[in-house]
Amino acid sequence: MNLDKFLKTFPPDYFVKPIRDKLPSSLPVPLLGLFEKIGAGKYRKGIIEIVDSEEYRPTLETWLGRKAPNYFPLALSAFGDLYYYRKLTDTDEDVCVLSPHYRSINTCVWSLNSFLNEYLTDDEVIKSKLREDLFMKSVNKLGALDVGEIFYFEPALILGGAEELQFVSKGKAKVHLDILFQIG
C-alpha cells in the first residue's frame, strides 16, 4: 500500500515510532506495514493519532459490548473519534468510526487504502470530521496534545455540551472514552 498521499497530508509529528515487538499475528498485512514502517503517534500536529491496536482494543470492545478479534483500532481523532479496521472476510474489509460524543458507529470506507489515502485526506473530512478549525483553536488555547491525549467537551455533548472552544478541555483519551461510555 502506497502511503504517499496520507503522509503528505498528515506528516508524522512528535513521538511517532514504529511498532514491531508486540504486533499480533492476526493483524492484516496492510496494517502490519503501517505500524512497522511508519508507526504509532501524532500526525499533522496531533489532529490524528495512529494508535497501537492492542492498546486500544479493550476500549473498542467495551464500546462494542463484545470481543471483536477481527476488528483493529487504527486511529484516534484529536476529539476522540476512534477509527477501526474490520477484516470481514478473506477479501472484504472496511474502516468504521466510533463517535463517543454522539454514541454512534458508522462505516467510513470499504478499504484501508481508501481510508488513509482518500477519506482522511479529503478536505471536507479534515474540516468537518476532524474539526480542523476547532482543533487549531484548542491547540492555541490548551497546548499540543501528548500521545494518548484528546480534546473533549465539558459538559459532554451527550449531556448538553457544545462543540465550542469555551467547552474544550484536554486529557487522557482512554480515560475520557471510558467516562463517556459510563455516562451513556
TrEMBL record:
InterPro entries: GAD-rel, T6SS_Tdi1_C. It comes from the Bacteria. It holds the Pfam family T6SS_Tdi1_C. Residues 21-87 form the GAD-related domain. Residues 113-183 form the T6SS immunity protein Tdi1 C-terminal domain. This is DUF1851 domain-containing protein. It comes from Cohnella terricola. The lineage of its organism: Bacteria, Bacillati, Bacillota, Bacilli, Bacillales.
